[in-house]
Design goal:
heterodimer; A: 285 residues; alpha/beta; Rossmann fold; seven-stranded mixed beta sheet; 11 strands; globular; B: 266 residues; mainly alpha; 2 domains; two-stranded antiparallel ribbon; 11 helices; 80% helix; binds adenosine-5'-triphosphate; binds magnesium ion
């Protein structure tokens, strides 16, 4: 489970990038984060990953250890060693995958377990046959086995993205974080990747940043919208046109043109009356 | 008027200005160094006589020269991987994306100093420390690698995609694992190619250092010249030429192999 409580990030000059972001996500939830460019979506995730130190607020990440007991991390104040331990249990997926281009798909997938392997072993021995086999199984379950020994730099964007997801799965994390995992993909591959992410949320929390409301509406169990560093919506995934209009403001046209999303209302514009017919979900102004 | 629409046409006459000042500089330097072109012609007959004294080569020392050449190769062969290992450490320490600022500036500083020092200066220093001989020579050659290889490696590491490093770091790895799995795979092929090139350089450098006392065929050449045994010197020179040509061919061949392998698909 992951709980974010009153997260704030201010720049030294006083500018506020994140303001009182609070939400928690538990297993079974697939949360889509929406919001315009520069809203603070990536920054929120980077705080969770421990890459950015927040100005205020708590990020509580808990996992169940192999022994069955619950372990809790307070991400914002961990030593370097403890942060590594916490990160071991976060499966992170980036736009484009950000993989090691000169290594093969299988090697990149196996890297998901590096955190569990001692530095001495990774220098002197590498991965066990068992680990290689398991990594291959993950690729196979994604119909990617033909790419196992191909160098990642030579794979297409969609294939790389799937390798990145395989790496996260192989990591066996307690939480999945994905920053724009489908943004660089064509609609067909984007749906493919969403279909891979969805089942992960069955027993682990999944949080993803997306730019396609029609995809979050179809696949996510819940949507959080961020605007100007604040949460402006947190609720059901099928946002109506007026809410989307509010979330994206100036960027509305591009969003509306996405297929099958809110196409019906695109031509008529977003009249204020429509706010009255809001679907369930809470708008926090 | 020198320009139209703000376009400066004078830029096209600059080469002439550069050439003139360059010529002036050369003249000044020649005057300073007391270059006397007349001497070249006055001593031409001496040069011809000297060349004559070098022939025919002394075939009785072929065996010695081959053996000493092998020693030269052995020195380069030992020094290159050793220098590579030192360069690896310095290169990693010199990359700002994986190394703390303090360590990085020390590493960069040492690399710059090394690059500024010719191998022979390093050797003269090491001879004082270790005494004259192979060991000082090998160490001088190894240290001589660091200026070039360490810098190239440090620069290559700094060019690795920041997002790739971050994404591997987020798996929860230590810094040494990051180096092993995200840094080395990206930079090693180019590093090995540079290392092979450096082997070729080290063969030549090993000849020069040999003449100063490090041993090998260079030392034999220096000794023969000192003793005015010019025919023996010719044998040494021929051995050196063959050695350098062979090492060039070998280095070209190996580097092509490495490059082809690292570029190969799949
Ligand atoms: N380290 C930082 N220093 C200063 N400003 C930052 C830093 N990181 C992010 N920002 C700023 O914070 C704001 C939010 O950035 P963020 O990357 O979270 O946007 P985003 O919602 O992910 O947008 P996009 O959809 O374009 O990726 C931006 O205005 C960005 O310039
Ligand atoms: Mg972003």
């Amino acid at each position: 489970m992951i709980r974010i409580d009153g997260l704030c990030k201010k720049l030294p000059d006083g500018r506020s990038l994140l303001n009182n972001i609070s939400f928690s996500v538990k297993a079974g939830e697939f949360v889509g984060i929406l919001g315009g460019s520069g809203a603070g979506k990536s920054l929120t995730l980077r705080c969770v990953m421990g890459l950015v130190q927040p100005t205020a607020g708590d990020i509580i990440f808990s996992r169940t250890k192999a022994s069955g007991e619950e372990e809790t991390f307070c991400i914002q104040n961990l030593s370097e060693r403890r942060l590594r331990e916490a990160r071991r249990d976060m499966g992170v997926i980036f736009q484009g995958g950000n993989l090691v281009k000169r290594l093969t798909a299988l090697e990149n997938v196996m890297m998901g377990r590096l955190g569990h392997i001692s530095p001495v072993r990774s220098w002197l021995y590498g991965f066990t046959d068992q680990e290689a086999k398991e990594a291959y199984e993950v690729l196979k379950s994604m119909k990617m086995e033909d790419y196992a020994s191909r160098r990642v730099g030579n794979l297409s964007g969609g294939e790389q993205q799937r390798v990145a997801i395989a790496r996260a799965i192989f990591q066996k994390p307690a939480l999945y974080l994905a920053d724009e995992p489908v943004s660089s993909l064509d609609p067909k591959n984007a749906r493919k990747v969403m279909k891979l992410l969805k089942p992960l949320s069955k027993d682990k929390p999944v949080i993803g940043v997306f730019h396609q409301p029609h995809l979050t509406a179809e696949f996510c169990t819940r949507v959080i919208a961020i605007k100007g560093g604040e949460i402006v919506y947190d609720g059901a995934p099928d946002l109506d046109a007026a809410t989307l209009a509010m979330v994206y403001e100036g960027e509305l046209e591009e969003v509306a043109r996405e297929p099958a999303s809110v196409a019906a209302d695109a031509s008529s514009g977003f009249a204020a009356e429509e706010v009255a017919s809001l679907r369930p979900g809470t708008i926090t102004p | 008027m020198s320009g139209i629409d703000g376009y400066d046409f004078r830029r096209y006459r600059r080469p002439a200005a550069y050439l003139t000042s360059l010529a002036a500089l050369i003249a000044l330097a020649a005057w300073q160094a007391e270059v006397d072109l007349g001497m070249f012609f006055r001593n031409a007959d001496k040069g011809v006589a000297q060349l004559g004294a070098h022939f025919p080569p002394d075939s009785s020392v072929i065996g010695i020269m081959v053996k000493e050449s092998l020693i030269t190769v052995a020195m380069a062969l030992l020094a290159t991987p050793l220098g590579g290992a030192i360069s690896l450490v310095f290169g990693i320490a010199a990359a700002k994306n994986i190394s703390p600022p303090f360590i990085r500036s020390i590493a960069r500083g040492l690399i710059s100093i090394e690059r500024a020092l010719p191998e022979i200066v390093v050797l003269l220093f090491l001879i004082v420390v270790f005494g004259i001989g192979y060991f000082a020579g090998i160490m001088a050659l190894a240290i001589g690698c660091v200026g070039m290889l360490g810098r190239l490696l440090g620069d290559a590491i700094e060019e690795i995609d920041k997002k790739t490093l971050e994404s591997v770091e987020l798996v929860g790895v230590t810094r040494s694992q990051l180096v092993r799995y995200a840094v080395l795979p990206e930079v090693l092929p180019a590093f090995i190619s540079n290392l092979i090139f450096r082997f070729e350089v080290n063969i030549r450098a090993s000849v020069v250092l040999g003449a100063v006392g490090a041993g090998g065929v260079g030392y034999e050449l220096g000794k023969a010249m000192d003793l005015s045994d010019y025919q023996q010197a010719t044998t040494a020179i021929l051995a050196i030429v063959v050695l350098v040509l062979l090492s060039e061919r070998l280095s070209d061949f190996l580097r092509k192999k490495v490059n082809a392998k690292s570029a190969a698909l799949a």
